[in-house]
Amino acid sequence: MLRRSLLAAAALPFLPRFPEAAPGATITFSWPVHAGPLHPHRYSPNQIYAQSMLYEPLVRYVEGGEIAPALATSWRQEGRDSIFTLRPGVRFTDGTPFDAAAVVANVEAVLRQRDKHAWLDLIAQIQGAEAIDDATVRLRFRNAYYPTLQELALVRPLRFASPAVLRPDGEITAPVGTGPWLLAEMRRGQHDLFTRNNGYWGGAPKPARILVKVVADPNTRALALETGEIDLAYGADQLDADSFRRLAADPRFTAAISPPLATRLLALNSGLAPTDALPVRQAIARGINRDALVRHVLLDTEPAAATLFAESMPYCRLGLTAPPFDPAAAAALLEGAGWTLSPGGRVRRKAGRDLALDLCFTGSDALQKAAAEAVQGDLARIGIAVSPKGEDAATVYGRQRSGEFGMIFADTWGAPYDPHAFLGSMRQPAHADYQAQRGLPMKPEIDRRITAVLTSTDEAARAADYRWLLTTLHEQAVYFPISFLTNKLLHRKSLGTIPFGDTRYEIPFERIG
Q1: Structure pTM?
Q2: Same domain, 269 and 229
C-alpha cells in the first residue's frame, strides 16, 4: 500500500518515553463511540471497523480492485447463479462449523428483512441460497448482476454469524463470527475490548488484545496519543489536520497518509429553495474556494476533488472538470437569475426573499465546523447568506433522510462501493443523495438508468449509462466535491509497521507486529 511520511518544522517539548510494546501486548486505540451490538447484518450504531474484526465475507476486496478468496476458496457462474466452494476447516469462535448450512442461514436471515437493505441492490437481486453439499453453496439471482462479487465483499450486510446465535426474528444472542478477533468486554462510556482468536484459520494475530477507548473529541485523542494513553490513531478524521501534522513531526511517532479512498463533498438540495434553481447551484460551485479549503482547513492532507468520484474508480474516467473558483462569474449567474444586491446590501434578494440557506454538519466534527465557516465566508462575498448548523450526528443523519437541509456534508463510500453501490443508494429516500436530487426534472430518468446499469450485460451500454449519469449529476451541480478523502495513520514507532486496510473502513489490527 502506498504510504507517505509527513514532516513538519515545529518541534514539540519533551514528553516521557513510551514503554516498548511486548509481543502479544495490548494495543490501545480509540473511537468516537462504542462498537455497538456488533450484529453483522445491521447498521448504525454498529461500527463498521468492529464488525470487520469479527465477521468475514465469502470473498475479499483487495486494494487495486481485485477480488480474493476469503471464506470461499473459489467460485463460478452457472447462468445467473453463483456457486461458491467454502474454505474447509473453518469454525466460528463458539466452535460451530462454518459450512453451507451456516451460509444459507445467514443469507435467509438477511432476505427476511430486505427492507432494511434496500440501499444495496444485491439483496433485491438474490432470490435465495441453497446448500449443494456441506462445502458448496448456490446463490440464486433474479437477473444478471455485475457487481455481485464486489458487494459480497462489503463489511455488511452479508457476513456470517454463527447459526447458534441467530434468532428467528433476525437478531443475534451474541456477536460470534469467524474473524481474527472476539469481543471480550464492553464498558459503557469507557471502552470495548477485543481479544485475538487463537483458533483463527488464517493464523492468530500477534497482538493479544485491542483495547478501544471511547474518545469523542479529536483534541482529546491527540492529547491521549502524546501522553501514551493510546497507541494509534487511524481514520479519515480521527485527528484534526493541525494535530496530525504536528504529531507527525514528533520523532516518537510514525505517520502516513493513504491514497485517496472516497470523496468528501457538500450535497445541495435541489428540492428546496433557493438551491432548487440551477443558477444558484452553479453560482455556489463557482463561489467556494476549493483550493483554500484544502490548503487551510485540510492542510493539504487530502487532494482537491473536481468530480463526484475519482477517475481511478471504474467507469469514471470521463474528462469532467469542475468550474474554477470565480466570484465574479458566480455573481453574474445570480444577477442573471434575478437575485440582486441593493446598494450597501450584503444579501441578495428576489421577490422579497433573501438568498439564504443552511449548511448542516456534525457539531463535534472540528473539520466540518471549520470548513462550514470557510464556505460561509466565501458565499457571503457573492451575496449568499449561509447559516452553519452544527448538530449531533443522529440529527444530521435525520436531516439526510428527511431532506431538511440546504447544503449538508457527506462523502462517497470508496471502493468497493463506488460507483455502483453509491449510485444504487441514490434511489432510496433515506439517503442525502436522493434528497439532493429529488428536485431535478430528470430524477426519474436518473433512477431508471441506475437500475439499468446494475443489471446490464452489455459493457458498452453500461459504460454509456455511467457516462450519462455522472455527466448529468456533474452538470446539475447537486454536489460540490471538496477533496478526495484519505485515511491518516499515526502510531508509536515501537508498534513497528502498520499497513493501511484494503478499504476505507477496515483496520488491519491482525497485521500489526
Answers
A1: 0.89
A2: no
